[in-house]
Amino acid sequence: MKVMKRVAVEKQVLAGNQHYANKNKEKFSNSRTLAMNLISSPGAGKTTLLEKSLRELSNHLRVGVIEGDIETSLDAERVSKYVKAVQINTHGACHLDARMIHDALDSFSLKELDLLMVENVGNLVCPAAFDLGEHQTVALLSVTEGADKVLKYPAIFRKADAVVINKIDLLPYVSFDLPAFKRDVKSINPGVCMFEVSAIEGEGVNAWTQWLLKLTALYKEKE
Amino acid sequence: MHEVSLMDTILSIVKEVAKDEKMEKVFIINIVVGNDLLVLPEALDFAFEMMKEGTLLEEATLNMREIRGREFYIQDIEGE
Fold it and tell me: Which helix (H) or strand (E) holds A102?
């Protein structure tokens, strides 16, 4: 006679990713490296912001970059003018996961890095679900995408520690409601830091790099 | 977003537990899905229906409970 029974499973579906995220976190902690995960849709200006920031940051900090893209090493080539950059090609996958970062970390000597910046695959949706073990998650949005994206894609804006609004030099030419954007971000994430920048013109980039310098210094003190 | 690969993970966990519990058939799978993970219940269900064929989960029903936040786990299973 077969008996019907109920068994508690209590297992996380994303446990595999979390396992590697925790390993990454431990590595960062051992080497006192602050890790940042930069997320936006394609073309919002992640790489341009990195290029502009690294010009300044590399004078003060030892920085490394991991570039995530579906194909090509174009971004790593751009960024490697300033610091060491490693390219991950996901070959179709729409996000980076913690395992990919774990493997890419072998290419760095983490003890020689103060700050690791990870540029995720251009996508406002999927990367929000995958913890990479980073300390800071940064969401970037450009004014050409429209202010409504905050409420349409709330997961990433809720998770973010900082939100960067890019291409503000184009504000006169697009109907981007900046006050509404800020209000919506604050409504779903009241404690978030916000930066208004034009990565291409350089406006506002200094406040952003100063914030990164301060965070990295604080992290060093704390660890 | 990646419902097929997520369902693949769910099915392998369930099969493993069923094996440990010496279950020959699983009838109910209860999972909890956080709304911040942007997992589509309909797509997850579609993947489930497609992937359960020919396995010990063939007759199983997938129950999803949506909660706020980022949790995503298999709560329990029923079978014999």
Answer: helix A98-104
